[in-house]
Amino acid sequence: MSFSLARYLLNLHFSFSSRTTRATNNHGYLLLAPDANTMKFTTTAILRGDEPQKPSAEELLVVVGGGAAGVYGAIRAKSVAPNLNVLVIEKGRLLSKVKISGGGRCNVTNGHCADNLVLADHYPRGNKELRGSFFNMHGPMDTMSWFVDRGVDLKTEDDGRVFPVSNSSSSVIDCLLSEAKCMRVSLQTGKVVTSASASASRKFLLKIERRTLKSVELVEADYLLIASGSSPQGHNLAVQLGHSIIDPVPSLFTFKIEDTQLIELSGVTFSKVIVKLKLENVQRNIPELTQIGPMLVTHWGLSGPAILRLSAWGARYLYASGYKGKLIVDFVPDLHIEDLKSMLSQQKNRFLKQKVLNSCPVELRLVKRFWKYILDREGLMGDTLWASVSNSSLVSIANLLKHCTFEVKGKGQFKDEFVTAGGVPLSEIHLNTMESRIQPNLYFAGEVLNVDGVTGGFNFQNAWSGGYIAGSSIGRVAGNASLEGAM
């Protein structure tokens, strides 16, 4: 009887209690297991008599990483090449970052960047390279259409962030997993790809370790897509296959501010501020180190979109400076300082007999707790009357509101939504296919590359776009190979 073997798989079990040689059917792959005592390998062929015989074996794509880029890319590859076997290996939970993003709502993408040049400007690493065909091939509107077509209703909020109407990341996760199941993509968790090597025949031999059991599998793959996020796992595999790595550093994080009075303002928000970062090791003017947007006071310092964008653009500078520097905040960006001085002077003349603390100019729209903080920094007691405030104090208050300086003493981790700058250099891949320039049939997508976006759905869009392009490219190559094998 003739038969063909799609792939081989070696199971190396380190439990020496049995002498039984095992062979297991794993979607048509050949499994090999060692004799428990002799450690010699025996093989059992898996017959596929229920399928028509093919002149060449079916090909296999292994995706390292079950996050947004990996799962999206796997689905796309399978949809382009239905006969391609697709296996996703994830060490933890599938789509774990999708689950927690946006406070559990999942910020799918950003819907306010129809112009791809504007969209690219939201990536501190990658803004120049992504100006080309990257988002033209699969941009935010394509992503939104993909999910809507599969039953996930979306909404775009005022700041451009796109969320499921359900306000639950489960809607996105369920959609992706359902589509993967429908496309017969194999999803395996609790496993880690620890090593990879390429053969002269352009195939990859992968060593896969199960986390909970002392076992190792060796899998030969025709295509490899590394979409492991910022995990060192993906960086190690990339190096083993000839790539270099730009050392990863934190990108999205909050600022630790050592100010006991500021801590008392925890929970206070500002709808619009201008924040500027000054670092000792950065002498030249960098426009991106000034950001505008909402800001939040936390119990350890400052956060919110303006701070997170600043942390992204200043990621490498902050790392080099030990996360120490000066943050200058303009709390009233829509007011010129001379107009502000005039406003405070008029407030004094109108309310001479009132306490300064109880009569903050309404035009400033400042909460009383923050107004007290400003007065405390100026040395004005709460029961001070406006009549007792000198003109020089009015000028100082105006300057403080326009140029309030804080000492940055460190960073706070953004928990599991942590994003890094660094990874495989974009110069080492073809962005129109996501294929390696160094190793044929090797592809990358997502945060494993030296690409990171600011907050607002841009990091997920990088994942969707990269995964889609990689999956499309792999699918086309696999489809062509299948046609050539059938000739």
UniProtKB/TrEMBL annotation:
Keywords attached to this entry: FAD, Flavoprotein
Every RsdA/BaiN/AoA(So)-like insert domain range: 249-419
Superkingdom of origin: Eukaryota
Boundaries of every RsdA/BaiN/AoA(So)-like Rossmann fold-like domain copy: 61-472
Any Pfam family matching the protein: HI0933_like
Coiled coil: none
Gene3D superfamilies: FAD/NAD(P)-binding domain (3.50.50.60), HI0933 insert domain-like (1.10.8.260), Translation factors (2.40.30.10)
The protein's name: FAD/NAD(P)-binding oxidoreductase family protein
Organism: Hibiscus trionum
